[in-house]
Design goal:
Elements lengths: L2 H12 L2 E4 L6 H10 L2 E4 L15 H12 L12 H21 L2
Parallel strand pairs: 1-2
Length: about 100
């Protein structure tokens, strides 16, 4: 097996639940559930009376993406390969963590 296959298998074992938007309803949920044994939860937004209700769990992803967008290298697609882009996301996450640890 290739090195990347081991990485994928590692992440598949770690991920237990996937939060998805309404656009991922249908056959994809059953495919993921049957193939990987993961629970896919569709987050629904809004209400029947037209009031805004934030979708459960969506703010976590939106906040994290917003924080990563503050890094200049991540606000545009500057990287040539997906692996380099992934490493830049990891570096940005480490930088955010270090900033929080040293802020006190």
């Amino acid at each position: 097996m290739k090195k990347n296959t081991f990485k994928v298998l590692f992440y598949i074992r770690v991920i237990k639940k996937i939060l998805a938007d309404r656009g991922y309803r249908g056959d994809l949920i059953e495919l993921v559930r049957n193939t990987f044994g993961m629970n896919v939860e569709i987050t629904l937004s809004g209400s029947s009376d037209g009031k805004f209700i934030p979708a459960k769990g969506r703010w976590v992803a939106e906040r994290s993406i917003s924080w990563l967008d503050n890094f200049r290298r991540l606000c545009r697609n500057y990287e040539d390969t997906l692996e380099v882009a992934r490493q830049m996301v990891i570096i940005a996450g480490v930088a955010m963590l270090l900033n929080r640890l040293t802020a006190n």
